[in-house]
Amino acid sequence: MTGKEFKQKMLSPILWVNLLVMALVTVLLFIGLWIWLGRYTHHGEEIIVPNVEGKLIGDVEYSLEMLNLKAVVIDSTYDHSQPSGAIMVQQPKAGSKVKSGREIYLTINSKASPMVALPDIADNCSLREAQDRLRQLGFRIGPVEQTDGDKDWVYGVKCQGRNVVAGERVPADAVITLIVGSGSEEEEFDYDDETPGEDDGQTQSFEYD
Question: Does one domain contain both 124 and 147?
């Protein structure tokens, strides 16, 4: 190709039209991609997370959906003072700023109390030690029952009116009754009224030659 032919091609209107069209298409593609990314990532959009703790899961799911947020239950716990299905913990916390479509992770109150193995306390520890061990496991402790034996020594355990043994699984919210010694056991002794060696009132007579 001669220099003259190259110059003619460079000055050709068709070439410049094609270059202009390509540049325009490239710009439009970048603009479209920018708009799509903004919508996909919800750029500049902020939603304040409401406080849902203490509310029931059914109501929370609806209220979050109205804000274009999604409720996701990830765990459960148990608190006898709260109704079943109540939200105990939420993440993110209330007041956090999130984007539309964000999942709100929830821990709800279980319908039933978890079962916990009873520790080995019967005939194995004192009243105070047994109470401490039970409280650490979350048990509630009712009034003690007393029986004959060493004072404040645990002789048995009751749950829901029946005797239970170490390792048996009982509801964590059940009231535990401890059977402890009253310290009132006394030994009885029989004493003779007569002291050995005392004169029994009989006289002996001796004859002398």
Answer: yes
10-residue mean pLDDT profile of the chain (209 residues): values are: 61 73 83 70 76 94 93 89 92 92 93 87 93 90 92 93 92 90 62 48 46
Q: How far apart are CA 45 and CA 172, in angstroms?
A: 45
Q: Which amino acid is at 157?
A: V
Length of the chain: 209
In whole angstroms, what separates CA 109 from the centre of its chain? 9
Minimal CA–CA distance to 100: which of 136, 64, 53?
64
pTM above 0.85, yes or no: no
Question: Is residue 197 domain-resident?
Answer: no
Q: What is the CATH number of the domain that holds 65?
A: 3.30.10.20
Number of H helices, E strands in the chain: 4, 12
Residue range(s) defining the domain that contains residue 170: 115-181
Asked if omega into 83 is within 30° of 0 (cis), the reply is no
